[in-house]
Design a protein that fits this description.
11 strands, alpha+beta, 15% helix, BH3618-like, 2 helices
């Protein structure tokens, strides 16, 4: 059981814990996390939480980048993939950290430093993409609105 800031007390099953060998930037002493979703979005929705198991006060808002940026393809150094134990492409999940300020329209996503999680080995890491075109503060809300508008126009 972990008492969390955002979700109250949660039961964390041992086999759901994801280990970040180096922690997260700025939180290097916290190595163990669990990926949380809400009932409505399950694993298909774009938003998730990376909740620290070591400190219930720490959780990171994440987005599945492919839900908003279908062509997102970060170039990752082999050393990161080797550490995660990348066996098959379907084992590896990619997420990005979201910053949600008071005004949700200013919400940003860090596309330069994706979080990679191997669902089989339960190892994770935040890595730096070699792609120079990906920014640290991409305006996610505006991009989601554009995607929604394009989808609605395509459905007409």
């Amino acid at each position: 059981m972990v008492q969390t800031r955002h979700f109250g007390q949660i039961n964390v099953e041992e086999d759901k814990i994801i280990t970040f060998r180096d922690g997260m930037p700025g939180f290097t002493n916290m190595k163990n996390y669990v990926l949380l979703t809400n009932e409505e979005n399950q694993k298909e929705g774009p938003f998730f939480w990376l909740q620290s198991v070591d400190d219930g006060e720490v959780a990171f808002a994440l987005v599945n980048p492919h839900a908003v940026y279908p062509d997102y393809s970060p170039e990752i150094k082999d050393e990161y993939v080797d550490f995660l134990g990348h066996n098959a492409p379907e084992d590896l999940s990619v997420f990005n950290v979201v910053v949600v300020p008071e005004d949700i329209k200013d919400m940003t996503v860090n596309l330069r430093a994706p979080i990679l999680i191997n669902q089989t080995t339960k190892r994770g890491a935040q890595v730096i993409s070699e792609n120079q075109e990906y920014g640290i503060r991409q305006y996610l809300y505006q991009d989601m609105e554009k995607l929604k508008k394009a989808f609605e126009e395509g459905a007409k």
